[in-house]
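So, does this match?
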Amino acid sequence: MAVPKTTSATSAATSHAGHAPAGGSGGGAAPVGEGSKPKTQAEASARNVGATPSASGTGAAQGARDGAGTKPAVDAPMAGHDHAGGTAAAGHGEPIPAGTPNVKQGSTGPVVPKGQAPTLTIPDGAGFGGVKGRQQNDGDKQQNNYSVTDANFNPHLGLMDKDPDTGQPMTYVKDIQTYNAAGYINAFAPATAAKLEKAQGDGAGMILEGSSYLMGLTRTEPAYLKQYGIDGADIPAKIPGSDRDAREYVKSAQDATGQDWARMHHPESAWDMYKGLTGIGVDGETALSLSGDDGVSGAGRLNGQNNQDGGNGFNAGEVEVWKQAAQLQQRTGLPVVQTMMAGHDHGALDPSALTDPAVNSRLGITGTGATAERANAITAGLLSGRLDEGNGGGGNGGGADNAGGGGGG
């Protein structure tokens, strides 16, 4: 799908408790990929990550100059252990306490062996604001269970039972939007995130319900927000490193390429990947494209938190995005692939639900971590074509996860 036209980088503005975000956009040099809207996915890929940063400071070099961080050597271990941005994704933590309001039964609980949590029924339908998004296939429905491989949701965030505004059951798309809201706040509004965690830990209310209100998805203010002094004042109105409106992006139920988010945990953990990429100096628009649904899903193929698809582990859409990442790394010297590798981060899977990455046998590597050794081997495999579809062993199960078909993604 075509990538929307990129915009200039800006400093983060802030807004208040679920109201319209503050205006204002920053200056700065145009990011990598600036230009007219591409017509095809191939052209979009070339436009989005195909330009080399110039000496004047565009793209990755601009991000580094603006305080995004230095360029660590690719042969050195990444800081922050296995998390792309050096911080835990929003799904890490204890289950939701019993008695917390509006929790969908069976969506939270202790970590258990694969398949031992209940599989839930979630209706399809429009998202908040009437937004259209992912409609479940058979594989999606099987993954509405927090204990299975590539579980759609995690037991720390759980699922909301009812839409706070209508009292009707939550739809799959609405659940995706709430996880996107929680992930954004966790990544960029640490004071608010900490208060939301405290309130949920006390059983006062769900992180998802507070996040949904603060990000403008819902209109009904949870009672606990005032009790815990949560006003969302530190939530950036613009996505840091991008000129995009954060609330509109969260509400859209699609990634920056226009592809539907496939699972709740994809947009939630994508913010950690995005933050890691901009932190090493990748411009915001390119980082949003790389940390989209296929980027996050592909990370799960590499770290064992996702099912494996074919002889290389990836589906076709994932291979395309990860090759773009490797090519960007080759041009810029930034550790792009290594930074992305921990992006598919459930935070609550039992070891029985993990898989052995197919890339390991194809490339002669071991483990599941985002180590420099694995990252270098995977980067070389992507650049050489050894990880292309069906090259050296079984074909992949069709196109991108959003194209249909069960499992994975």
